[in-house]
Design brief:
Rossmann fold
């Protein structure tokens, strides 16, 4: 069983990927701290001393490599890399940095959790039975694509991408939408969703489904008039 004391830091500047990973890892029993940029990830690592970090290799500003170097040299937190690329040069670079695993986007949470368990066991941290480190994983959902610059267009893009992942919880999509529409941090978007659910007397899942439906309805083409 997963040790709920194991703390995972997740850093990715793709809002939908971040929300999906956080939701999946929390559902698996982990304590998760999240950041959508490298600077915040470093601050959270210093404050929380996580047992493991999942880092997107390529981000604006500080990259996952920059964050990993800081974790390795100053915090001692083991890390895994996330990337949309799976060529030999990048995998070698990840190994040279000391990554416990290298996971290839698009990501499937059902495959991420076993990889996290294995990495924790390999690092000697809390939270998993020993398993061999996984090879690079390719999964069939959430392919990262360039996002439109306007917030409504981004929200529509998130929903369209989520339609290719039928098992994706509506909370993850709604959090991504709120982050883009209101320029919120992941934590701020999560709090907004909780506040919306409370105000409407709904569960968070029901409120999230309403948000997604509302954005999808607004994006639908108008019905032809008679």
């Amino acid at each position: 069983m997963t040790d709920t004391r194991a703390t995972i830091l997740v850093c990715d500047d793709d809002r939908l990927v971040l929300a999906t990973l956080v939701h999946g890892l929390k559902s698996a029993g982990y304590d998760v701290v999240e950041a959508d940029n490298g600077d915040d990830a470093i601050l959270l690592a210093r404050e929380r001393r996580p047992d493991l970090a999942l880092l997107d290799m390529r981000m604006n500003g500080k990259t996952g490599l920059d964050v990993a170097a800081y974790l390795r040299d100053h915090v001692g937190t083991p890390f895994m890399f996330l990337s949309a690329f799976n060529d030999e040069r990048i995998v070698r670079q990840a190994v040279e940095f000391g990554a416990l695993a290298y996971l290839v986007k698009p990501l499937d949470v059902r495959q991420i959790v076993p990889a996290v368990e294995a990495a924790l066991a390999r690092s000697g941290a809390r939270g998993a039975a020993p398993e061999p480190a996984p090879a690079p994983i390719e999964a069939p959902s959430l392919a990262p694509e360039p996002l439109p610059s306007d917030s409504f267009g981004v929200a529509i893009d998130l929903i369209e991408r989520a339609r290719g992942a039928p098992d994706l919880p509506p909370e993850a999509v709604a959090i991504g939408v709120l982050m883009e529409r209101h320029r919120l941090s992941p934590t701020g978007a999560r709090r907004m969703l909780a506040a919306i659910a409370s105000a409407r007397g709904r569960t968070e899942a029901a409120a999230a489904a309403e948000i997604v439906s509302a954005v999808a309805l607004l994006s639908a083409p108008p019905s032809p008039t008679a």
